[in-house]
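Quick one before lunch.
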Amino acid sequence: MSRRHHPRKVVAPPAFKGYRPYGTSVDSQGEVELLYEEYEAIKLADYDGMLHREACMLMGISRPTFARIYESARRKIAHALVEVKTIKSVYGNASFDKNWFSCKSCHALFTMPRQIDDKTCPMCHTEEIIFINEPK
Ligand SMILES: [Zn+2]
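Model of the zinc ion complex:
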């Protein structure tokens, strides 16, 4: 039973389900679970070059909480690299402003109003789409 935290605002879910090592003589030694909010923290701080005090406001959390999530993300990624682990992206405590869907067939990531009746993938038009705004 995991404790529910205050939701962390995430703009968009990661556009991948995971990363797998290749070109190694060692078989992948298990996996690390990177939470959506950890991905977001890395993206904001290291990719967008945002200051922590700006990034925490965007995610609707305190600066110490942001720092903890960011540290956790970096530790997990470092472990994955050094210990040849697969990185798997998982939901965590994310909250989104938009309704996000992913396509089972072409893996496209897109938003649309949830109340639309005809829900198909805008890329390949399959009906095999998954609503991803909630933990699996
Ligand atoms: Zn599709």
